[in-house]
Amino acid sequence: MRLIREGTNPDGHLSPVMSAMDFRHASDEDTHAIVAYPRSQPAIQNEIEQSSLTPLTLAFIALGMFPLKNLPEADSIAPAPVPVGPTSEYGRYITTFLGCSGCHGDDLTGGAGGLSPKGPSLRIVKGWSADQFVQTIRTGVNPTGRVLDEEEMPWRFISKLDDDELKGVYAYLLSFP
Question: What DSSP line would sit under 83-104, residue for residue?
Fold first, then answer.
C-alpha cells in the first residue's frame, strides 16, 4: 500500500517506477483491491535487474512531476465517497484517482500539454446524454462520430469502469459551471 500511496519501496526509498501522484487518492478499499489483484495471479519467474533512478525519472523529478516528499501518509487518505454510484461526488473521486487532470487540466477545461498529451476540455459532455458519454467511453467514438485517439486518450482502460462509475464521472463533469 505504501508503494501505491507514497511511491516508496518497502525499505522506504523512492521507487523509480511508482510515482503515487494519482493513486495516493485511492480509498483503502480500492487500494486493497489493487494489491489483491496481482497477488491473485500466478507467479512468473524471471531475472530483474537492480535499478536506480533512471534519466526519465530524474527528468520527472526536476519538472516536479514526481514528487520526493509532501505526499500524504497512507492513513490520512479519506475513504471513497458513499454511496458508490452514479453521483457527482463519486465521479470526482474516480476522475481524481484516474488522474484525468494530468491531460485535461486541473478544472478539466483542457490541458496545457508538456509531457502529457494536451487533452481537450471535458465540458463538451454537457451536450451529451449520460448514455452517450458511456457509449463514447465504451467504443472510443463520440456522438459526432469522432474517433478518440487511443495514444492520447486511454478509453479502452477507462471503458472497464462499470456503468455507475462512468455515469458518476458524467455527473461530475456536468457539475461544473
Answer: S-SSSHHHHHHHHHHHTTHHHH
